[in-house]
Write a structure and sequence with these properties.
This protein has 5 helices and 22 strands. It is of the alpha+beta class and 437 residues long. Strand 17 and strand 18 (357-368) form a beta hairpin.
Length: 437
């Protein structure tokens, strides 16, 4: 039979003055469809589009069950969207675009020309706004990692992360434009127009709204188009913020910032409107919290024992990690041993010793922590699996890692380049506790 006409998913209206017809989405703004969704009409429309595109071979019954979830997930995988089987607004729009034969703007790494960090160029706010406009976007957004400290520590964080040198206007954003909600994920939003309307709302997914999502009371409303910092999202892959931008021509974008599980980059709206200028690979993007020179301790976002980076020699010894969560839902333990002669040993497994995986190799500093720095440095490691290993795992682990110290007995190791230490580890940063000197 002929493919379904999905114009049923839209409504049309005629302007009484000019006579032009405008088409609006059938779905309410921010609609999220998942298991338990109780709006059969919306689910049926989504199911029919998936059937027509051969993702779903099931009855169009308006029930968001396991088969519909699997079909949504298959579509997301093919079009490089977050693969969770949930009908997020971006996913629904992509399914509709594909059903109507329209181009789909897949979420992926930003184009090479948008890599603002590849050279020494410095951008004023005016220059940066011009770039956003040249790309025909309404705003730019940067993910700046998990930041639990207060506003006074922010300038130091931005300097260590390497972004305030590139965008000096970051340091001119006042405290009243440092907006906070539940969570610790920090974003900077820069509207293209200085007169743009900017609204930031909590995005609520609750049992009361059947997990379809709805905007809460506004955290911020402004008409000056000023750049803002927004902190929220308990998890970097689950949005609880809604960003609305409207320019003076009436163009608008609705955006829910979060990181994609597909490529660990910002998930961008399929219809465009947002330019990503996240400093991917920044040395301290996900770990630095903020340092207090007077108390020689970090802000309460970090452990109370956190102190300045110490002599690199203090890394020498055994460091253990417990319950490292993997993408397969398993937990690993491990012991990493730094020796003074630059040799290295690492063991890991699903239980304590004897471990399943054993490696030996060498380590060296690419960059050591400087006086007054909040990190110990950047370490290069190269490990080879030994004959003691009983599990089938990779023969070699090699990479570059950031090491942060939280006192004398706790460090975190974050992969900057290369391979993870643990098999399919879920989080990029792993906490190790000092065991034996």
């Amino acid at each position: 039979r002929a493919a379904t006409d999905h114009s049923q998913g839209t409504s049309a209206r005629n302007c009484t003055q000019c006579g032009n017809t405008e088409t609006e989405s059938f779905y309410p703004e921010g609609t999220v469809l998942r298991g338990g969704s109780n709006d059969p009409a919306l689910v049926k429309d989504l199911q029919q589009m998936l059937v027509d595109q051969k993702y779903l071979q099931d009855t169009v019954d308006g029930i968001f069950g396991k088969n519909t979830e699997a079909a949504v997930k298959a579509f997301q995988a093919e079009h490089r969207l977050m693969e969770d089987g949930i009908g997020w607004p971006q996913t629904i729009q992509a399914v509709r675009s594909a059903a109507n034969g329209e181009a789909i703007y897949e979420t992926s790494s930003q184009p090479e020309q948008f890599d603002f960090y590849r050279d020494e160029a410095v951008y004023t706010l005016s220059q940066f706004r011009d770039i956003i406009k040249q790309q025909n976007e309404l705003c730019a957004i940067a993910y700046l990692g998990a930041y639990e400290a207060e506003y006074p520590y922010l300038p130091t964080y931005l300097e260590v992360a390497g972004v305030s040198q590139k965008f000096p206007f970051f340091l001119e954003i006042p405290e009243e434009h440092f907006l906070t909600y539940e969570g610790s994920q920090l974003y900077c939003i820069v509207p293209a127009e200085k007169d743009a309307l900017v609204t930031v709302n909590p995005w609520l997914l609750t049992e009361e709204n059947d997990y379809l999502g709805e905007a809460g009371e506004a955290i911020y409303e402004g008409d000056s188009g000023d750049p803002i910092f927004v902190r929220g999202n308990v998890s970097d892959i689950m949005p609880n913020l809604q960003i609305l931008i409207e320019d003076t021509d009436g163009r608008s974008v609705e955006y829910y910032p979060f990181m994609s599980l597909k490529d660990n980059m910002l998930e961008l709206p399929n219809g465009g409107g947002v330019l990503d200028f996240t400093p991917y690979g920044s040395k301290l993007l996900s770990e630095y919290q903020g340092y207090d020179e007077e108390t020689e301790k970090m802000d309460p976002g970090a452990p109370d024992t956190a102190i300045k980076g110490e002599d690199p020699g203090t890394l020498i010894g055994d460091w253990t990690a417990d319950g490292v969560y993997t993408q397969m839902g398993e937990e690993y333990d491990g012991t990493l041993t730094f020796y003074g002669d630059s040799t290295l040993a690492f063991g890991s497994g699903k239980s304590r010793e004897p471990y399943e995986n054993y490696y030996t190799g060498r380590w060296t500093y690419r960059e050591q922590g400087k006086e007054g720095s909040e990190y110990s440095g950047i370490v290069e490691m190269e490990l080879t699996r030994t004959a003691e290993s009983t599990a089938e795992t990779k023969e070699r682990i090699a990479g570059t890692y950031i090491i942060l110290r939280y006192g004398e007995e706790l460090i975190s190791i974050t992969r900057l380049e290369g391979e993870d230490l643990f098999p399919d580890q879920y989080w990029n940063d792993i906490r190790f506790t000092y065991a034996v000197g």
